Fold these 2 entries.
Entry 1:
Amino acid sequence: MQTSPLLESLMESLRCLPGVGPKSAQRMAFQLLQRDRSGGMRLAQALTRAMSEIGHCKDCHTFTEQDICTICANPRRQQNGQICVVESPADIHAIEQTGQFGGRYFVLMGHLSPLDGIGPNDIGLDRLEHRLERETIQEVILATNPTVEGEATANYIAELCGQYGVDASRIAHGVPMGGELEMVDGTTLSHSLAGRQKIKF
Amino acid sequence: MQTSPLLESLMESLRCLPGVGPKSAQRMAFQLLQRDRSGGMRLAQALTRAMSEIGHCKDCHTFTEQDICTICANPRRQQNGQICVVESPADIHAIEQTGQFGGRYFVLMGHLSPLDGIGPNDIGLDRLEHRLERETIQEVILATNPTVEGEATANYIAELCGQYGVDASRIAHGVPMGGELEMVDGTTLSHSLAGRQKIKF
Ligand SMILES: [Zn+2]
Ligand SMILES: [Zn+2]
């Protein structure tokens, strides 16, 4: 668009958003200019504050602008004694939406990946160990992703828990609820068979 | 996400962008926080400047932060004597990309729509009339959309041009190049037949 350097710069900047190509960037820029300039200004302010003020929770390492996030600071969640280990802050969001977990979290911001030089301390396991040592924790629930790296990371943390006499558990993997058996991949189905549980009457 | 009000506010604000739902907003926010904070800050600045500084060109009404946009201010384009009338600034972009047009534009920012109370002056036709009167214009090329409203708007402007002795033309509509005839809708095909041109040897 040769009519406006500022418009070109806006379209270019919008492309830092995942999934936004030249066409969507153009549509977004025109939409904001034509119909929602106040929305665009609010977005600019939200971005500025989020990018500059959001850091990591000292306890669980998730994104927060506070020292300790609201989940970690909640006395009820502290008393619960369970810590759920996840790879990313988005996983917390997914688990919170189930309403099935009342403990606290620990966010690794990744997983062990020796080939990429990512060792235990790079994903904060020194801080997790410190918590296992210092706090009264009943159970560590390992909710890393069901990938090779996620499994290896879960195993490593389970051993760490063992050293401090803390129970470790792994979330169940298998056929998704509501899914059709024939649509599920073989690895998942193997996991599902191996992880079968006796039906109690 | 109960861990950060600023993060929630960022996700909410991202939804002012067209095509961005709760899931994409979350993915965008996490992506920026985790991997591209400087991109997020640049986007915030581009948004702030674009939303507050971009107005409309006094001559063609397209988006620009200048009084007169760079296309209208270009002496070569002024000498060309052609004005292409389009419904939106995005149409200018599309036509510029063909490299086939060396004149100036006039952006209606919509089309005539009597049922919605949108009359000639609401789409700037008083300003277009003023230009027809004052400037030396050889041809007005009507590139409004091939919709009922777009056609009606083109016809209205063609009559206006007639009053000032200025030639008006309508861009051709028909089967898209590279398209397959059997995939084209009936209205387009009718247009294509009616608009047939004699092959000259
Ligand atoms: Zn926390
Ligand atoms: Zn202009």
Entry 2:
Amino acid sequence: MGKILGKQSIVFENPPYIIEGASVVGPKEGEGPLGKLFDVVEQDPMLGQDSWEDAESLLQKEALQKVLLKARINRADIRYIFAGDLLGQLIGTTFGVLEYEIPLFGIYGACSTMGEALSLAAIMVEAGNAENVVAMTSSHFASAERQFRFPLEYGNQRPFSATWTVTGAGAVVIGKGKGFAKITGITTGKIVDYGVKDAQNMGACMAPAAADILYQHFQDFNSTPADYDKIITGDLGLVGKTILFDLLNEHGYDIAKVHMDCGVEMFDASEQDTHAGGSGCGCAATVLTSYIFKQLKKKAYKKILFIPTGALHSTISFNEGNSVPGIAHCVQIECC
Amino acid sequence: MGKILGKQSIVFENPPYIIEGASVVGPKEGEGPLGKLFDVVEQDPMLGQDSWEDAESLLQKEALQKVLLKARINRADIRYIFAGDLLGQLIGTTFGVLEYEIPLFGIYGACSTMGEALSLAAIMVEAGNAENVVAMTSSHFASAERQFRFPLEYGNQRPFSATWTVTGAGAVVIGKGKGFAKITGITTGKIVDYGVKDAQNMGACMAPAAADILYQHFQDFNSTPADYDKIITGDLGLVGKTILFDLLNEHGYDIAKVHMDCGVEMFDASEQDTHAGGSGCGCAATVLTSYIFKQLKKKAYKKILFIPTGALHSTISFNEGNSVPGIAHCVQIECC
């Protein structure tokens, strides 16, 4: 049974296992520094579909198929899926998981969604409500640009603080059976709003939420940055990362030595014109299910924090003058 | 601990309690047949805000405040909120709960969201991960029209199969402490797609999902319609209701005697020009927290099924020619 810890955390007394993960990405991600580590690199960003949105759904479909194959688990043995994406009304997820006929909990936490999915999947398994649960998220550069910014055909300029939405999906099977790692605790985020209104600088919008949840995690678990081999944020990028360091320094925590940001790792910014880094639900999800899981499997990482962050806005809220608040969900993972 | 039951259900061995509920609605809902039963009827559909979206956020803010007051629980004693709405990227929820600083799991199941929220809140409490959790959803007629259909200024015609999105928010506190009812089981829906492409006939899109989940619930719990005082769907409306009856009749179940649909009850269709009935996340949520909870409190209902249904689409998926699949989440509630 889970045990309530501190203000915002749960520590799992019988930690659920991470049984397997799978990652599917687009061509640009395949050309990046982590390119060789993904399970599947699609060579066509449209995946042969007629729309970007259908392409994104296919990414989820493929990631789910791949993780079931890798884990040697049948579709019928997955009790629930916790999944989400960035598109309005989660249409990426809807058409991605439809054919699998698995009970679905649709979730939305912007780019923090993989943290939310892992948290809820872990709770479900640990409480004895399921043998196996899938946590999955996706994003697609072109569908996200249409959803949040301008039609690609405009060829609009991107400021250097802007990030590049990752085309990719990551899926994880959490279960009771033996896996290579376990989820030993979670710290669940609240919405944090510093009043930033620049939707082209999402790192700045999300960094306060990352700082807030990390500070709370250290308090709840009575831990320090030195207790972790890596503290991994989702897609703060180069701008958000610096702000996170500054905010945590104010609380007396220096995480620079153990910090890694999935968005910073995903692309070679100078070669790939991605400015502040990669972003999107698919960014943290695909780096988790490729590079990070490989490090856990070979025990290069023994204990990590995975903290994807989300910027909570829509074109409507933005155009009506609202700020872009952030949220972050922290998942503590240990190899075994 | 929850116990896995059948293919898609959980039966709670230590059922979490429904401690209190609160409902806030707009003026049109206040003039409907249930008008006197809501906690708050706002007289201005804008709630004094500058945008429909800000008005919807305020509905959530008020519903949350009201339920805490009614339950005599402090904000700090709510461990988690499970909340969602119909707007892209859940901006109704984001700006509705922001000030409360309570850890948030954002969820999306279209109009089934209250069923999803209650399910996850119940799991959280029963697993010992929280003393009190809030489940909350909202919708707003005008923000939903902007999100899904046409600008109100167009004055477009609505077919008779169309429903009228309810302006309202409902909030429920689920907890370990004594309440007037308990959640004794859940059956979680999968996406069901009959290929219907008419977004102006959401009843037809959702009825197959309602039939699917009800059939599965009867199988998993080895029960029949006669075991329940009421079987309550969310917003199938007059068209969807008939389809649900037909589909269940094919399986040998006749629910007509015990069935009620929140969308049908919400408005007087002939007087209020609402065509097939009310709809939206706020429809099931406000009828649950007003009329239904009152019936449970006075033990007029001893055992019910609450099954909000959602139509999974966006303007993008619809305009790209995709169908509108449905999903439904079933919650078994018993008075105590």
